[in-house]
Design a protein that fits this description.
By secondary structure, the protein is an alpha+beta fold. It is built from 14 helices and 23 strands. The N and C termini lie close together (5 Å). Bound molecules: uridine-diphosphate-N-acetylglucosamine.
Amino acid sequence: MESFIIEGRKNLEGIVDIGGSKNAALPILASTVISGREYIIENIPDIEDVRDMFEILTIMGCKIQFDNGIALIDTRNITTHAVPEKQVRKIRSSIILMGAVLLRTGKVEITYPGGCEIGLRPIDLHLKGLKKLGVELLEKNGLLVGSVKEPLGCEIQLDYPSVGATENIMLFAVGISGKTVIYNSAKEPEIVDLQNFLNACGYSVSGAGTGTITIEGNTNQVTETVEYKIISDRIEAGTYLSAAASMKSKIYIRNIEKTHFKSITSVYEDAGCEIRETHGTIVVSNNSRLNAIEKVTTQPYPGFPTDMQAQFMASMSVANGTTIIEETVFDSRFKHVPELQKMGADITTVGRVAVIDGVPRLHGAEVYAKDLRGGAALVIAALGAEGITKVNNIYHLNRGYEKFMEKLRNLGVIITTID
Ligand code: UD1
């Protein structure tokens, strides 16, 4: 398995172009299944999770060509309602196919999804929402088997603004009779992007981003070709921001909507990092050690994202003072802590709370990526560390970061891979 070898303490300088959003692309790709037609989708990140989603769609009968961030997808010949098990286990977001496949074929067979091991990731809210819309669901030999019986729009109150549950409900409700209203829906920019995509497909969705989404079901078959461009990845941008903020640097982050990652930039600004925008480019400059932040709590959007918690922890490991991070979204998302400790970080965890006493400098070590964002945190830590760091299991990083090594090299990082 491949590892990164990173030489620490080189200043970061240069330009980084942000790719398409992973968490917007995956549900949008899943939603191409809803109606049989052709799509031209731009700004799709070339990452393993996307490749796995393409594989699932291809096995199910779709034709896909993917080149230079643009996918041509033809979903007219979907041949099955069974979503292939091996690939579903690899990516959590494949569960979004449940709503889409149910709508298209009236049935579904899908296994429980995989993805990052970051604690319990139940899907009870997905199931509850779909059942309310008229889907019958049962478990058979470890598979979820669903069939549609007289589906009808209704009001759904989510107990928690789950991103995936909101998406799954949207993808089924758009094509059934009646109006569906999702209360306490997730507000993430990726949900707004999904709404925009569905509307570009001829469906009628409004309210995404506000916490209440209204869907006027449209049972007419719509078949004309759809063209769409996916938003940029705010977590990828936040990761490069974290890297720059953790050491001496001046980097230009291009192709990012600043409002989407305001909750990230504002925390780094509070820590003393200079962040400004010129002509649509975010300029991050840092000359001195960051200051600790008393407490940061991860929350659903527009709060500080759980997907930035690990990278932020790496930054705070070398800040001046003590930072407390509370992880409220997932129950087991501190797997990067023992690895950061191997590099000299002073971190104590109690349940979902981590206390980080900043040290002046980390040192290189052999560490293991345990999940996607935790792996990114180790790379960030390595950039500022004294000596050489070997980050193992970088397949986790390939799941969600496009051309990670190439982009870091463009910023002056000395990084190679070995098997
Ligand atoms: C999505 C993102 C992921 C991000 C997360 C939170 C994608 C592909 N992934 O994941 O990167 O970290 O949002 O911003 O978009 N929950 C339940 N029951 C459910 C569903 C969720 O209890 O039916 C819980 C989860 O266990 C978790 C929390 O709700 O503790 C948040 O999950 P959710 O918002 O659904 O995240 P994902 O859609 O899995």
